[in-house]
Structure formats: C-alpha cells, structure tokens
Amino acid sequence: MVSIKTESFETCYTFVSNNKIIMDQSALQFLLNDKTLSPPLKTIAKKVQEGERITEEEGVLLFEKAPLGYLATLANHIREARHGNRTYFNRNFHVEPTNVCLYTCTFCSYSRLIKKRDEGWEYSLDEIMDIVKKYDDQAVTEVHIVGGVLPQYDVAFYTDLFRQIKAHRPELHVKALTPVEYHYIFKKAKVSYEEGMKLMKEAGLDSMPGGGAEIFHPEIRDEIAGGKCSGEQWLRIHEIWHELGQRSNATMLYGHIESYYHRIHHMEALRNLQDKTGGFQTFIPLKFRNKGNQMSHVEESTIIEDLKNYAISRIYLDNFDHIKAYWPMISRETAQMSLAYGVDDIDGTIDDTTKIYTMAGSEEQNPAMSTKDLVKLIRQVDREPIERDTLYNVVTDFKDHVFEDDNQYKGYLSLPVVNK
Questions:
Q1: Model-level pTM?
Q2: Best CA proximity match to 238, nearest among 183, 174, 285, 318
C-alpha cells in the first residue's frame, strides 16, 4: 500500500494494489482544522468550501506552494460537488484533413511544411467523406475535425464538407476547427469573424473544439506559435460562436517554456470570457510532448506536475462545468489518477484516428479504446462511467451495466504446477 504524503498531513487518497482509490470524505474539513497549514493556503481552502472565487495571486501561490495532497483534496471536493462519482466519455472519431501547414509552431511534431508536403497527407473532400462513411454501422455520436492550415482548405471546402456530413448522417455531431483555421480562412475569404462563423453554423457546424489556444500571453505565444491568431483573436472567435447560441471547449498547452504566471493569466482570460458568455463546456490541459519538434531540448513535465495542473485548473475555473484529461496524450494510467484531481471527463473512444500526439511521442501510439475498455478504466478507480454526447447529455449510464460477455464461461484458469 502506498500513500502520497505532504508536508504536514497525509492526503486522503490511498493507492492500493488493485488501483482503487479510497477517499476520506472529511478531507476538506481536516485541512481547515490543520494548525500547521499556512494562513494563505487555509484561506484558499475556506474559499473553496464556501464556493468563493480565488484570485490570480492565489492561483500562482497554489502552483508554487501547495502540496499535492492539499490540491487533490480541494479539486476533488469541487469535482464531487458538481458531478459526484460520475465520469464522462463519448464515442467519437477524428478526421485530420491534412498535416501540411503554413505555420511553423516550434512545439508541433505533427505538421509538415509545404516544402516537405510529400511527407504528409492532404485528403480530398471525397476521401474525408469515405472516412466518415466507415463509421456508418457504429454508434459514434461525434466527428472531431482539425488539421493543418493550407490554402485549398478554405471556407468553401469546409462549408461543403459540413453540409455533406449532415446530408449523409444528420444526427452526427460535427465538432470542427479551431480559431487558428477560422482566422486564416476568413481572412483569405475577406469575411468578418461574425460572417464566417454564421456561415459555418448554417453549413452544419455544431460546436468548436478547444485547440489552438496554446498560451495566450504574447511573450510566450509569439515564441512558440508566431504567425497564428493572437490570444485575443482566439477568444473573440469563441465569443462570437457563443453569441450565436453555440458551445465550445478550451485548452491550454503547458509544461514547456511558460511560467506559472502564464498559466494563470491564460485561465483568467478564459474565466472572464466564460463569465460573459457561459459558452465553454470543458477545459482540457494539454501536456507538451517533446519528440520530433523544435523544442525537443525542453524537458517534459512530470506526472506530479500534470496532476497539480489538473487540480489547479479545477479550483481556478470555477465557472467551467467540466475538466477533461485527454487520455491519448497522458496515458491511461495517468488519466485514471487524474480522476482524483478534479477531472470528470476522459474524452472518447478515438479509434486510432488522431496522430497529433502519437507523432510527439505520447505513450499511446495507437490510441483506441472500445466502450467496454473505457467503462472498465473508469470503474477500476471506483468512478461511475457515463457515456455522453458532445453537449453532455447522457447517452448511457454504465454504472450497473453488464456487458454480454461479462458472465460468459471462459474456461478454467490453468495454474502452474509446483513440484515439491
């Protein structure tokens, strides 16, 4: 049995040999009664207990001073107050039209420059529709479309694509493109953000993913993603989409050259926009991976830092309903652990349809899980698996679900013979 210890108390999470996590429900009160806890951290814990918002300065303090067990206690308190033991996933697949890109982001392992476009792929509209049709007999609810930026993938291309998907399978939720793509294609078409997003909605776009956010602060963004839309432009495109009555997600790329201040600055911008529109559904921290890119000299964050980042995200973003751990990026095991650090969503089945993180050296080189795999992953840490659609409507509650082969006879277990 292994426990994670902090400076002044033992955390309420005890990891045992079967990967289950035992939780002490009085953990938050224990913190508040701990006389060795510093006054600033006790003030933050009291704010969490009373549902009050923490400040930017307190957010940075959490990164710099808070023990991991303390963060887990606060984040899990918020998570369970909102969702109980429920953990969400969906049945989805990705389409990446191209990995050839005009931009040269230093953190990216996925894209290929135009001068090396023979190393990449550029799907036609018909080829993309062939991918979509491959899932006709499967109970997927979402197609997630993102990729590189090239001139031929313009407003006309994407509006045609969205219309064809909806004509072929009207109930399939189209979650597509980030402000990076939209900024480029609208500028090329000489249409405003407002006009462009209205065109996309009319063509069949249902929601927007959260990618392309990276880090908003210009001193970091200009260095790692120079030439792409600015942080302000990213936020404005999401704001316009929300004003059209639609939903979207948000991300943050962490664990590279940014400071803790830059992370909190990023989350503060998201929190402010969410106060204004209420249009964000979930926040997804994305871990920087250092294989095959121009930042391979930068060390990756540790699992401890990953868990800390999830927890502080949950504490700071008090107006976001969900915090998601993207399992193909951080591994299945870390995704399980994150469920004790404020995370309530682990994304979807994927079906080995994305290369963005596999090309950057993630543990999951062929990311695919069946519904049964995801349900088992969640149950192993005593959480309740809930299949959702993109907008978090419940599709199936798997809490007590029995799969067809669960009770099937699988033969006797052959044990080794020991000769004495």
A1: 0.86
A2: 183
Distance CA 406, CA 170 (A): 34
H-run or E-run covering 198: helix 193-203
| Half-sphere CA count of 155, side-chain side, radius 13 A | 19
Q: 103 Cβ partners below 8 Å, 6+ apart?
A: 111, 148, 149, 180, 225, 227, 228
Cβ atoms 150, 101 nearer than 8 A: yes
Which residues have CB under 8 Å from 187's CB, separation 6+?
A: none
At 143 the three-state DSSP class reads strand
Q: What span, in angstroms and rounded, lies between the C-alpha atoms of 112 and 92? A: 26
* Helices marked H in 278-317: 303-316
Tokens representing 214 are 């990276």
From the list 14, 11, 22, the residue with the least C-alpha distance to 382 is 22
Query: Which CA distances in Å does 116 have to 100, 121, 122, 138, 285?
Result: 8, 11, 12, 36, 30
* Arithmetic mean of pLDDT over the chain: 85
Q: Distances in Å between the alpha carbon of 198 and those of 170, 180, 192, 194, 252?
A: 19, 17, 10, 6, 26
pLDDT in tens, 289-322: 866 666 777 788 899 999 999 999 999 999 999 9
Report percent pLDDT > 90 for the chain. Answer: 66
Number of H helices, E strands in the chain: 15, 14
More confident residue, 405 or 106: 405
* β-strands 345-348, 142-145 pairing: unpaired
Beta strand pairing call for 2-5 and 247-254: unpaired
Q: Is 379 or 227 the better-scoring residue by pLDDT?
A: 379
Question: What is the spatial distance between Cα 406 and Cα 35, in angstroms, rounded to a whole number?
Answer: 49
- Edge-first strand listing for the sheet containing 173-176: 92-95, 142-145, 173-176, 207-208, 247-254, 280-287, 322-323
The strand pairing partners of 322, in sequence order, are 282
Residues in the chain: 420
| Biggest distance spanned by C-alpha atoms of the chain | 83
